């Protein structure tokens, strides 16, 4: 089957016309000039991110415990107690590595989001690996966070294989530029990570509805495991998603930023993490390049400094609302 994005590989001229950017352009033109090194710890350390978000009254998953040393693991049973569901993650992990999602218990064993059953020794071993730095940036020693497991909104849960879908919003100077929904599959083991086989679904900034989806680079309209429709789905609490993501700019001081959120059934959007180096697969998910949008935001931010979060969202919606139709032109 011919992939629509083969046109993106045709020539540098064609790529430029479509507004597609690569890692070198992202780093040299947008990331490095706008992200001061001193602010990176605010997003690279998820524990720090959580505390900063709470200071700004942004909803985050409840923190049950933090394991900092190997000796603390003897209290694992007391920490977990009778908790049926929880998430264990490295504070300085990246790319979704090292995240263990437990959705239930079966006797003295634990059931992962994927349905795989593991033992208490497996959980302890996983925490030891986190503390040893197996999943952390640069391999440095880390701490393990034990958090509440988000109860995903039912409208989104029905299009994801066991794991909770998350929304990523990429921003420049605090302006939302592009968004996508990341949906778990059987292959991704319940994780919403595109590199592990999850599905990327573009979201229209104006309506909050899904407009295009890709799985391993192929355009898709239905979930490969569930056979559920992926397009035309409204993201619950979309206005709140944009507000919380956009406030990440004031929270971190980072000009080029990705915000990841999950929509909880009871509490609405919840901030999961922020990313100073968001990837570029969001262009595939939206069938739209980032360059033209980033250039518009740069011009706006230069001409109108100090704009508040609400007006930044209004600008993005007005500026990028017509690009859904433009994307249709080269998907076909």
Question: Would you give an account of this structure?
Answer:
This protein folds into 2 domains: 234 residues, D-amino Acid Aminotransferase, Chain A, domain 1, CATH 3.30.470.20; 85 residues, 2-Layer Sandwich (Dna Ligase, domain 1), CATH 3.30.1490. The N terminus and C terminus are likely disordered. It has 13 helices and 13 strands. The strands form 2 sheets. Strands 11-10-9-8-7-12-13 form a 7-stranded antiparallel β-sheet. It is of the alpha+beta class and 332 residues long.
**CATH architecture label of the largest domain:** 2-Layer Sandwich
Strand order of the largest sheet: 11-10-9-8-7-12-13
Unreliable stretches (pLDDT < 50, length at least 5) are 1-8, 323-332
Q: Report the count of strand segments.
A: 13
The structural class is: alpha+beta
How many H/I helical runs? 13
Total individual domains: 2
Shape summary: globular
SSE string, helices as H and strands as E? HHHHEHEEEEHEHEEEEEHHEEHHHH
Any idea what the radius of gyration is?
20 Å
Main sheet attributes: strand count, strand direction, barrel closure: 7 strands, antiparallel
* Helical content band: 25-40%
Question: Approximately how much beta-strand content do the residues carry?
Answer: 15-25%
Report the CATH superfamily of the largest domain: ATP-grasp fold, B domain
CATH domain topology of the largest domain? D-amino Acid Aminotransferase, Chain A, domain 1
Mean pLDDT: 90
First CA to last CA: what distance?
13 Å
Give the C-level CATH assignment of the largest domain.
Alpha Beta
């Amino acid at each position: 089957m011919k992939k629509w994005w083969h046109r993106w590989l045709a020539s540098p001229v064609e790529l430029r016309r479509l507004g597609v950017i690569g890692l070198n352009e992202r780093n040299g033109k947008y990331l490095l000039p706008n992200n001061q090194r001193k602010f990176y710890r605010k997003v690279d350390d998820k524990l720090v991110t959580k505390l900063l978000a709470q200071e700004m009254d942004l909803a985050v998953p409840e923190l049950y415990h933090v394991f900092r040393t190997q000796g603390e693991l003897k209290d694992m049973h007391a920490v977990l107690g009778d908790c049926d569901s929880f998430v264990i993650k490295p504070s300085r992990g990246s790319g979704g590595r090292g995240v263990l999602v437990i959705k239930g218990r079966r006797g003295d064993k634990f059931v992962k989001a994927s349905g795989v059953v593991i033992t208490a020794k497996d959980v302890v071993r996983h925490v030891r690996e986190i503390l040893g730095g197996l999943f952390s940036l640069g391999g440095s020693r880390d701490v393990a966070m034990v958090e509440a497991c988000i109860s995903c909104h039912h409208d989104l849960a029905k299009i994801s294989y066991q794991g909770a879908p998350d929304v990523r919003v990429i921003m420049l100077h605090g302006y939302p530029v592009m968004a996508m929904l990341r949906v778990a599959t059987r292959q991704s083991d319940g994780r919403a990570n595109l590199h592990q086989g999850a599905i990327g679904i573009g979201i229209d900034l104006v309506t909050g509805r899904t407009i295009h989806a890709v799985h391993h680079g192929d355009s898709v309209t239905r979930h490969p495991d569930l056979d559920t429709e992926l397009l035309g789905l409204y993201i619950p609490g979309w206005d709140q998603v944009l507000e919380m993501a956009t406030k990440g700019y004031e929270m971190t001081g980072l000009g080029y930023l990705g915000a990841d959120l999950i929509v909880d059934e009871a509490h609405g959007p919840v901030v999961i993490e922020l990313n100073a180096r968001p990837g570029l697969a969001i262009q595939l998910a939206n069938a739209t390049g980032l360059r033209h949008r980033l250039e518009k935001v740069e011009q706006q931010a230069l001409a109108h400094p100090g704009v508040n979060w609400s007006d930044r969202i209004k600008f993005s919606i007005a500026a990028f609302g017509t690009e859904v139709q433009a994307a249709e032109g080269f998907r076909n």
